[in-house]
Amino acid sequence: MATYNGTSMSGASALVKSLEASGVEVAFGIPGGAVLPLYDPLFDSKLRHILVRHEQGAGHAATGYAQVTGRAGVCIATSGPGATNLVTPLADAAMDSVPLVAITGQVPSAAIGTDAFQEADIRGITMPFTKHNFLVTNPNDIPRAIAEAFYIATSGRPGPVLVDVSKDALQAQTTFDFPSSISLAGYNPQIAPTNQAIEDAAALIARSSKPVFYVGGGVIKANAHRELLELAELLGAPVVTTLMALGSFPGSHPLHLGMPGMHGTVAAVTSLQKADLLITLGARFDDRVTGKLSTFAQNAKIIHADIDPAEISKNRFADVPIIGDLKVTIKALIPALTKALAKNRPDLTPWLRQMNSLRDKYPLGFDNPPDGAVSPQSVIQRIGKISDPDTIYVAGVGQHQMWASQFVSYEKPRTWLNSGGLGTMGYAVPAAMGAKVAAPDTTVWAIDGDGCFQMTNQELTTCALNNIPIKVAIINNESLGMVRQWQTLFYESRYSNTNLESKRVPNFPMLAEAMGCVGLSCDRPEDVDKTIEKAMSINDQPVVVDFRVHRDAMVWPMVAAGASNDDIQIARQTAPDWDSQEL
Question: CA-CA distance, 143 to 10, in Å (whole number)?
Fold first, then answer.
């Protein structure tokens, strides 16, 4: 794009050229009055624009695209309600550290602050949950703002950046000048860890007899999965991967204990509780993992490696803090640990035997419904078995999300997408759309609930019209399932406003057909496999399958909100007798 430098053009053209110069291939958006000048030069650009049906869909699609590619996703909206409809995707991306650049139109600069038609202070609204944001009123500032936005979104800890551009800045003439490099005063993410931190971590690991790798989504963001595998096998310690880290370590690996947290495996939860050392890589000690924080891993020392210094010791004091890119950090830790273990290699055999015993004694499982209805867990498990190993799974939020995390084995990074931190219902369909755009030759399954699906299913029209053949499995228990589960357990089965009646209205297969998709349904256990195989055979249209499942299936194990991880419940049982395990 340097060839365009010095060329006179409109601010809108400068914005499009800046997106092209930033390597953008696709953007998701909807035009409107304030951003309309941008859409005219976009008409002539090679940049692919996908016209969504709702701005929230644009934001989640950009997130899905970013999570699969590792590059920044792009979404575009007009001022006022267009921009405010991006608030949820931006907050979602911030919580899950997803690189996102949102372009919003704004009313003319002279009208800002006058409550003009479709005016909203989107910069002020989104400031708490964007990594940075810009209000651009001078067309000369557009190229640099876009370049800086992509640099900030993708460097350090990834996150969303908003660029709000006034309509008059888009319409005015400017001389295009795209910066060849970006350097921002005060923003210098630390990439390489200090030698002292690496040496201290290696020494502490070599003294540990009950270490656990506590792995978070940062490992995937840093593309450090190969390094993690090498480090884990070097030490031979158990590995737990959080909801956002599934696929960062092969789910079938003998060292993998599963997912920790509120609905984690007994072995994973217990390993953290009973460890003497947590080797924490790109995780943030989230409340869904720690349970009651004061009782979490009370006897463990903490090594905490993260590129974001604000996370270090935020929730749990780090005995050895390591600030830096995780790929660089783990690469440095491998030779340091090799040297430390040559001097003193602890015997981890008893520790591994205890954890493996728990994994064998308390495996994930489910009972088939006594009334002969379809088991939701079995549907998801069979999708995982029948689909090819490169399949990308995108989940909404709720019971189906937890079952998808439990009953599909994730062997590769970037094959499991979900809204982890914000817990956004309606995430799955548009995020699956973005994922399929990013990986058009890969099967993409959206595992959705009947409640989530009804929030953003209009994007199936977008998929049908743009040849984006995602597959959607609706786990239809005609309820807000996770809320119903809590009402069963904690509110004496008083089901206040959780009955969706989704097996009656709407008719999901007919709705799918109306939006240009193939609609299928399944309500008998013996039909599950052939229905999945039918969906798998259709690759030229989006497919929606209404799996009508047992209503009262529950997600187990479970640690109740605010409870200690020591009180993990296994299908309404009390916690295992830890004393008898001699841990």
Answer: 12
Q: What are the structure tokens assigned to 244, written together?
A: 């956002």
Same domain for 215 and 68, yes or no, is no
Q: Is residue 556 part of a domain?
A: no
Helices 142-154 and 11-21: crossing angle, nearest 10°?
Answer: 30
Residue 50 sits in the same domain as residue 152:
yes
CA distance 7 to 85: 35
Element (H, E) at 400: helix 399-407
Pairing of strands 543-548, 392-395: unpaired
Is residue 457 within 8 A of residue 483, CB to CB? The reply is no
The DSSP secondary-structure symbol of 184 reads B
Task: Name the maximum alpha-carbon separation found in the chain.
Answer: 77
**C-alpha span between 573 and 419 (Å, rounded):** 29
Look-up of token digits 């055979």: 537
* CA gap 567, 570 in Å, rounded: 10
Nearest to 282 by CA among 251, 303, 299, 267: 303
The predicted-structure confidence for 143-169, as pLDDT tens digits, reads as follows 999 999 999 999 999 999 999 999 999
Q: Are strands 73-77 and 173-175 parallel, antiparallel or unpaired?
A: unpaired
Residue whose C-alpha is closest to residue 453's, from 434, 432, 429, 437: 429
CATH number at residue 417: 3.40.50.970
Could you tell me which of 542, 548, 172, 122 has the C-alpha nearest to residue 374?
Answer: 548
pTM (global) more than 0.70: yes
Give, as one character, the DSSP assignment of residue 45. Answer: S
Answer whether the bond into residue 557 is a cis peptide, omega within 30°: yes
Residue 153: what are its φ and ψ, rounded to 5°?
Answer: -65, -35
386 burial (CB, 10 Å; 0-12 / 13-18 / 19+) is middle
155 and 298 in a single domain? The answer is no
Domain range for 269: 195-361
DSSP, collapsed to helix, strand or coil, labels residue 521 as strand
Q: Are 12 and 170 in contact (CB under 8 A)?
A: yes
* 263 band by pLDDT with thresholds 50, 70 and 90: very high
Q: Nearest 10 degrees: CA dihedral of 53, 59, 64, 66? A: 140
Angstrom distance (rounded) from CA 27 to CA 67: 15
Residues 6+ apart with CB under 8 A from 221: 70, 97, 157, 158, 282, 326
Kindly state whether residues 355 and 382 are assigned to the same domain: no
> Are residue 12 and residue 67 in the same domain, yes or no?
yes
Residues 284 and 316 in one domain: yes
Question: Alpha-carbon distance 130 to 133, whole Å?
Answer: 7
The residues that are catalytic are 55, 117-118, 167, 482
CATH number assigned to the domain comprising residue 290: 3.40.50.1220
Q: Which two structure tokens, joined as six digits, stand for 567?
A: 């009180």
In the chain the first and final C-alpha atoms are separated, in Å, by: 61
293-347: per-residue pLDDT in tens? 999 999 999 999 999 999 999 999 999 999 999 999 999 999 999 999 999 999 9
Cα gap 426→310, rounded to integer Å: 30
